[in-house]
Design brief:
183 residues; alpha+beta; 27% helix; globular
C-alpha cells in the first residue's frame, strides 16, 4: 500500500469513526422500543392487567376496592396528593431513587430520614411541572388508587442523568393517590 493509499484509508476510517460517534450522540431509535418490550414482558410475566395511556403503561393494583366507583377521578387541572416510590427499570423495578413513603424510608438502611420527605406530594395536574409520563398517567385514576406507572426514558428523564438515574433509563413510579380535589 502506497503512502497516499494509506492516508486515504486512514481518512476513510476517521470519517467512518466520526460518523459513528456523531450517530451515537443522537437519540437511539432502539432505546424506547426496547424499553417498551421489557416493560410489556414484565407486566405480561406478572399477569398484570395494564393499560397503555399515551405511551405510559399503567397498572391499578386495587381496582376492585369498595367505593372506587364513587371516588373522584383525576382530570387535568385537579389537585392531587399522593405518596410514591420511584425506581429505575431495566427488566424489572431495580433501584429506588426517590420516595416519600415513610415505611420505605424507615426500613431502608441507606436512606437518611432527615433528607427524605414523609409528606404527600401535592400537584396540580397539567400545571405542576412533572415528568411527562406522570402528567399523562395520572388522569383517569381515582382517589384511593394504588397505581404503577411504567415510563420509557423519553417520558421520564430522557438522555440526561438525574441524580442516581442513568441517562436513557426507564423508570416505574408506585403511587398511592390520597386525595383528589376537583378543579
Amino acid at each position: 500500500m502506497s503512502m497516499r493509499e494509506l492516508k486515504i484509508f486512514q481518512s476513510l476510517v476517521c470519517i467512518a469513526f466520526a460518523g459513528t460517534v456523531v450517530a451515537g450522540c443522537g437519540p437511539d431509535m432502539e432505546i424506547v422500543p426496547d424499553q417498551q418490550d421489557k416493560i410489556l414482558s414484565y407486566l405480561d410475566g406478572k399477569s398484570l392487567e395494564y393499560e397503555n395511556i399515551d405511551g405510559v403503561y399503567r397498572y391499578i393494583a386495587n381496582p376492585e376496592r369498595g367505593g372506587r366507583a364513587l371516588a373522584p377521578v383525576v382530570s387535568e387541572g385537579d389537585s392531587v396528593n399522593f405518596l410514591f416510590a420511584a425506581y429505575t427499570f431495566v427488566n424489572a423495578p431495580q433501584d429506588l431513587f426517590y420516595t416519600n413513603f415513610d415505611f420505605i424510608i424507615e426500613k431502608d438502611t441507606v436512606l437518611n430520614p432527615l433528607f427524605w420527605p414523609e409528606v404527600p406530594q401535592r400537584v396540580k395536574v397539567g400545571a405542576t411541572r412533572l415528568l411527562e409520563g406522570i402528567t399523562r398517567g395520572l388522569p383517569g385514576v381515582c382517589e384511593g388508587d394504588s397505581v404503577q406507572l411504567f415510563l420509557t426514558s423519553d417520558l421520564a428523564y430522557g438522555s440526561k442523568m438525574v441524580g442516581s438515574v442513568p441517562k436513557d433509563c426507564a423508570v416505574v413510579y408506585y403511587i398511592n393517590v390520597i386525595s383528589v380535589k376537583k378543579q
